[in-house]
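Bench log, entry 3. Co-assembly request; chain sequences pasted below exactly as received.
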Amino acid sequence: MAEETVICIGCPLGCRVRVVLDRRGRVAGMRGAQCRQGEKYVLKELKEPVRTLTTTLRTTDPEFPLLPVRTSRPVLKTLLLDIMKETAGVVLKPPVRCGQVVVPDVAGSGADLVATADWGRRGRGQTRE
Amino acid sequence: MPERVDVAVIGAGPAGLAAAVAAREQGAERVVIVERAERLGGLLPQCIHNGFGLLYFGEDLTGPEYERIFIQRARKAGVESRLESMVLDISPDLEITAASSRHGYAKIKAGAVVLAMGCREKARGALGIPGGRPAGILTAGTCQRYVNMEGFIPGRRFVILGSGDIGMIMARRLTLEGARVEAVVEIMPWPGCLVRNEVQCLHDFGIPLLLEHTVTFIHGETRIQGVTVSRVDGERRPVPGTERFIPCDCLLISAGLIPENELSVRAGVKLDPATGGPLVDENRQTVVPGVFAGGNVVQVHDLVDWVSWEAEAAGRNAARFADRGSMSFRDQVRVRAGENVKYVVPQFISGKEEVTLHLRVTRPGLKAALLLGGKAFKRFRSVRPSEMIIEKVDIGRLSQAVREGELRVDCRIGEEA
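Structure output for the full assembly:
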């Protein structure tokens, strides 16, 4: 039997939920969650903790040296640093549209890296008045 | 002759954009945003993380995505903008003076003005930390700009003073970029950030959060070499004998935000010392007729979604004011922050229609009760200073709670957190 503590992020309460795991790592009991949604979150967080990764990629434009990107869906928490390493050398060329896939299936995560801003030949997402 | 516009909006961040769009939708003919930067969007482009728009759009957006939607709305709505223009003065009769290297010196006469200048970070000077004055001490937001927009990382080993949300977001970002975050040092017994940021920015990466600790000395002559960190007692005084040295080459300050109101004061706007923002009524009008305010210039919000909503109200009412030429300040009822309430916005209401109260507690606690006029209004399992409480109060409950022109708001705690 092992115990793990998971803090629920569902609301300001931030319940510290203590989970008892059996020898096979299955959830045998749970204490401290004040609602059902919290229990669901804790189970998911134990089984498959996922996060949306947001970062930047280099561009060829010295005036806008970085373009912000995100994963197209949440990825396993354990893959975050792998994705950072794999994309460290990527350099983007304009134009890139917000929502465009810039790195498909990044680090074998099944998710794509997607631009979160427009970057045209005349600059990032902006035209002057 | 000054140029005439219906509504002038000061600042092109999320508040300014939302206010300007709302003013146009309300029928204002000429709506002009005056912005000192060279682009619209304010600080959103450097906030590349997600968590924006969950309430407003029901979608988990990043800062640049949120900004993009509002810039598109502003274009579509026919909002004009005057970029690279620094507003120097707003007179009580709504004449704006702006200076710009692109447009020169300009006077704009507005039918109504919306203050949307947002807020700024507390810097080292506001905290009074002893020690040297080496390079390598910057606010979390400045670091965010360097890392997310300019493309460089200002250090390798970081200590973060204060557990505000921007500092937490940067702790994660710097770790992902390969820097080391030695510790987050928080003087209060509770974190200053949202729960989700404590978990996803610190716990995920094993970054220590030292509660009831503060930086008591900064080491280094030319570049910061490290900091002395001490535990503090209940009065927030450092406890002798608890000092320890943490080496670092960068200290980030993430110790809170202050509404940016130098211009407001020049216009004659009165501020609430508890929020640092203007005293406003439910229309978000300030005590100066025709001057409205919305977003972080009024109160520092947790979520941009509420910045947008508050600024929309300011923009709509500014358009109404510009159309009619007047709108009375609704000061029939004074809203008073009582027990364990740091502030309530709006500070003045008519008491004659439903109102949404924004408030923060002073101390965290469990089994809390929000009281209006001494009567229980709502119960909360938990309250924290870092999580704003937002409650709509209908006219029935409101009229029961108002006594002698005052609406008293208390938040009683059942158990200490």
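Helices of chain B lie at 14-25, 63-77, 140-150, 165-176, 195-202, 262-266, 304-324, 395-401. Chain B has a mean pLDDT of 95.
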